[in-house]
Design brief:
mainly alpha, 14 helices, about 75% helix, globular
Length: about 290
């Protein structure tokens, strides 16, 4: 009887755990579908007409006008010129952020110097200030430098940021052993060699996340490029696409097609960056 009771209890536990796994997977699948639906709905609206968007009940399948709407976007605005400007700003800006933020975070995490805590506290305070408050003084500064209307005005002011330094510092403190740095110092390595050959390889997962986050932010930036890019031929993609949304003659299928065209590069960058990010995290978890 005792053996039968243990067998029944084991079957009950196994059945309960199986039901739990099924329920968890169902919830995850539902979350994925909910997350993907806005992208699918964007494709539906971009492939139809404005009349289709206002239909009731709404049309839930893609229409036949996607290529035509994309061609109209290219004809209506300087899409490829603004795309090139945005790619330059996003790629160069992301590279500078990754370098300067990781370098500063390495110093804050692994070195002691005067006023270290005070400087880090002031850095965090700058992160709490709304970006809108700095638009006017930042524009005046760019004008004094002669950078207003230039892509440098979009790249240089954002070459380092408080969030990236804070994020990388927290990661460095927890993932970069002091023993590795001590071994490098014994071999005669200085600050920059330790940073480049020891710290950076350990920072790869954090850099992947920060790179994705920064690239998407620079790609989608609208207010600052709208303010500082006084030359209409050097506007970024988001500013150019905003011209499609005319107040009294809004063609929403055209606007949605432009939005879809601007989102595709972000999806590619996310898939590439997320793959490295998740691969490095899985490797670290396996080693642990």
């Amino acid at each position: 009887m005792a053996a039968d009771e243990r067998q029944s209890a084991g079957l009950a536990i196994g059945s309960g755990s199986r039901l739990t796994r099924i329920a968890v997977r169902a919830v995850l699948l539902l979350g994925v579908l909910v997350s993907l639906f806005p992208f699918y709905w964007l494709v539906v609206m971009a492939s139809g007409t404005t009349q289709d968007i206002y239909r009731y009940p709404p049309k839930l399948v893609p229409g036949p006008h996607l290529l035509d709407n994309m061609k109209r976007v290219v004809d209506s605005v300087d899409f490829f010129g603004s795309l090139f400007n945005t790619v330059v700003v996003a790629v160069v800006g992301t590279a500078l952020v990754l370098f300067f933020d990781s370098l500063a975070a390495f110093a804050f995490a692994k070195y002691d110097f005067p006023a270290k805590r005070f400087m880090f506290g002031m850095l965090l305070m700058t992160y709490m200030i709304p970006a809108q408050l700095s638009l006017v003084p930042q524009f005046v500064t760019m004008a004094e430098f002669g950078w207003a209307g230039s892509l440098k005005a979009l790249i240089i002011p954002g070459a380092a940021n408080a969030f990236g330094i804070f994020w990388m510092r927290q990661y460095a403190e927890n993932s970069l052993p002091d023993e590795l740095l001590d071994a490098g110092r014994i071999d005669g390595a200085g600050f920059f060699r330790l940073y480049w050959q020891v710290a950076l390889p350990m920072f790869r997962p954090a850099l992947a996340f920060l790179g994705i986050f920064t690239f998407i932010g620079l790609w989608n930036e609208y207010i600052w490029p709208l303010v500082v890019m006084i030359d209409p031929e050097k506007v970024t993609l988001q500013v150019a696409l905003a011209n499609l949304n005319v107040l009294y003659q809004a063609d929403y299928s055209l606007v949605m097609a432009g939005a879809l065209m601007s989102v595709v590069p972000l999806i590619v960058v996310f898939l590439i960056g997320a793959r490295h990010f998740l691969r490095d995290l899985a490797a670290g978890a396996t080693k642990m």
